[in-house]
Design a protein that fits this description.
9 helices; Jelly Rolls; elongated; alpha+beta; 51% helix; homodimer; four-stranded antiparallel sheet; DNA-binding
Chain lengths: 194, 194
DNA sequence: CGTCTATTTGAATGTACTCAAAAGCGGTGG
DNA sequence: CCACCGCTTTTGAGTACATTCAAATAGACG
């Protein structure tokens, strides 16, 4: 368990001094999850954010009919949390569950707040990360508004090639906002197209 | 034209010294738009971000069929830009157009970069703003995945009461991801429900 | 090989869209 | 003042995209 993957990730955005690095490292926790374990559970306060170093998670919402709607998948070198709950420290609306055995570097809410004061550059780091995440979220929204299910699937397939391998189809369907049966029909339709 | 509305807005997130305020003010521009004018046009680089002090804008995408998909409305005390274009300084995918006469306080990309170095607190300011914006964007995504058109409209009506007054229905339909005809049918349906 | 889960297939249904036409609603000018 | 124009909203019929439910197949794993 070491902080190296996070430090390498951070250098893509900002550079830290050795001292800053060791302060940061002193405030990290490391944790392993089994397939199926929850990192965040609806109703609980999300007390830490998780930077994944291996594995895969899904973040999803359970609607009033008990149906699951997947908002995002996270893998290595990406963050996984209920951001709304984390920043407000109020109960989470969403769930984060491991769909593979997963390893994470975690920062508790309290430590994150301390770190922002100890290392002001981290405000810049997360400002930049959030800028990109927001752009990605807006682009996804527009795709959901403007593309048909088939087009959304083809985009997903192309954009997230590696995900198609490791994620069950019924979860991809949920992410795309369609039923598993309809995704299956879309796939057979695509085969006929060729 | 003064910077007061922006300064008041900022105090909700961070506090600036008098000196920091005057640096900030020196880097702002003020601009008025007529109804129908574009603040950002698809294909152009978005060279500034706009903080609205009056009026209303829509941010939208034009799809391959020439259809318009509204991503957001912005009013007083909110930002309006193509964030993806602004942070990358690459051509915009989206358009921002005034649907009312609109006044904005603007910060150019160059000035924003300078300001981040001159006033490190601004990294924190925008980190916090972006956190909230991302949460809002994710919540909207989930509503689009999990609610029917009627439910989305009822949510919009309740959440954005003031918008219903000032924004034409066909634009609200676009924002909700449905056709204007169908929104009209939903409304008559809701009247029957009562 | 059997069991459990995931995927596919088909028929019937529902939600939302398209197209066309009519009705409503301002604003402007004669 | 009202008649006309352009734009927005409504209504209706027919259609398309996507869902539901049920059953059959296929895959994965012990």
């Amino acid at each position: 368990m070491d902080a190296e993957p996070l430090l390498i990730y951070i250098t893509k955005f900002i550079s830290l001094t050795d001292e800053e690095e060791s302060i940061l490292i002193s405030r990290l926790n490391f944790r392993k999850y089994l397939k199926g374990q929850y990192i965040v559970q609806h109703g609980d306060v999300c007390r830490f954010s998780s930077f994944l170093t291996s594995g895969c998670t899904k973040t999803f919402y359970i609607d009033h009919d008990g149906q699951e709607h997947i908002m995002m998948f996270s893998i290595k070198d990406w963050w996984s949390s209920d951001l709304g709950s984390f920043i407000s420290q109020l109960p989470a609306n969403y769930n984060v569950q491991c769909i593979e055995p997963t390893e994470a570097i975690q920062i508790s809410y309290e430590n994150q707040q301390k770190l922002y004061d100890e290392i002001p550059k981290l405000d810049r780091l997360f400002r930049k990360i959030l800028e990109r995440a927001l752009v990605a979220s807006q682009n996804r929204l527009v795709r959901n508004l403007s593309l048909t299910a088939k087009e959304r699937y083809l985009f997903f397939k192309e954009q997230y090639t590696s995900f198609e391998q490791r994620i069950p189809q019924y979860m991809i369907a949920s992410y795309l906002g369609i039923t598993k049966e309809f995704l299956s029909k879309i796939k057979s339709q695509i085969i006929l197209d060729q």
